[in-house]
Amino acid sequence: MNSKNKLKATLLVAAGALLLGITTAQPNNANAAVTTAATSSKTTKTSTAKVSTKHYDAQITAPKSMASGYQIYSNVPGVKNTSGTPTTVTSGSKYNNKYVRVMQSQKSGSATYAQIRYNGKILGWMNANGLTKVSFRAVAQATMQQYDAIGSVLVSHNKSLTPTVVSNGYANMLHSTKNASDGTTVYPLASLQNGMTGVIIQKLINAKELTPTTKLSRFYPQIAHSKKITIQQLLTMTSGIKGTVKEPSDQLKEDDAYTNAIKSLTSTGKTSFKYSDINYVLLAGIIAKVTGKTYTQNLQSRILNKLGMKNTFIVNDVQPTISAIKAVSYNLNGSSDYQNSQSISYPALSGLPGAGNVLTTPTDYYKFVIGLQNNKLLTPKSYQKLTSYSKKYSGGMYVNQKGVKSNTGTYTDTGYSTGYYASDGNQHVTITFLNQSPLKNNMTPAKFAQKMNNVATYY
To answer: What is the pTM of this model?
Structure first.
């Protein structure tokens, strides 16, 4: 071996001895935590398992052996807390059987923990053994049953997916006809029709046949204060007109319906918000006067035909030809369903052109809701105008929630109610058609529609 090789060998041996000494005296960083955790009773093992961000719906189901259910942690047990906030523990018992959205999952030792969200609020991390995966349909159906909501509901939680339709109870208990949205049963639309009337008015404004400042006196000068009442005020329920349309004894022609509405109203001259369907009945009359065609003809050609709403029917002096069952109205009396049965009369419907003379299904009405924002009815600019005439109610819908349009409807002294919510862009849509009221647990139909919208938004 020459001198160079001897020198190399000497250096390698020395380096190896040095490394061996270090290794024996001090563990490297990769093993330090494990060695320390194993030899110290004061240190807890920590996990560095990857987080799964897969979302799914679940029901909290406590095992029989755990009456109080699994606990909910602010951080994953056994995983290093890097949040800077102390780890807290709360009982999950009050959420037993509730439906939640799993936002992410992480392993810790032999257990898997899931971060759960309930109605938009992050609760924390729970052992995944306390969760049972469920479908979105199951969540929607369970919500209907929880409040004994009799009717049919459409919920869309993702605009790229087919909407989910769930129904509960009977449309006609006497004939054992169940509620449905497939066209076999139709429901009175009530005030949700206002949006359709608003669209036609906006089309006439776009065509310069009307303006938002056009006066009511141009069409109905006999109404008090009509020289000061504008189209915009009718659209926003700030016309000072109040009252309820008197129910006629026979089915009315449109002109007779407008006359009946005028006889039913009181014009106060005030400009504060006051909801009255008569505003939209008058708008329907204005549509007929401006176009020279009936409101029925305008609605059919401008909206129903354009959107393919084949299960939607207009009621006027001629009874519509429909093969579907018209849902019967019921009341909940204590714990007894299907009390005080009655059916909305055709004369009553005929008295509300523009504001409640339509029979339809949640699925058909969904076509209209989607059509509002997908350029089939209005351009984005026109839709923005229609919904901006007021900060509370504009164009047939409430606009006072950021990013959401909504409306509800009822028929006086009946169990019928309707409601809808739609987020901007239609990412989340909810349509509720009920034929019994009230609901269980002091839930109003309007609040129930909001509950179902929570399902569409957070699950």
So the answer is: 0.87
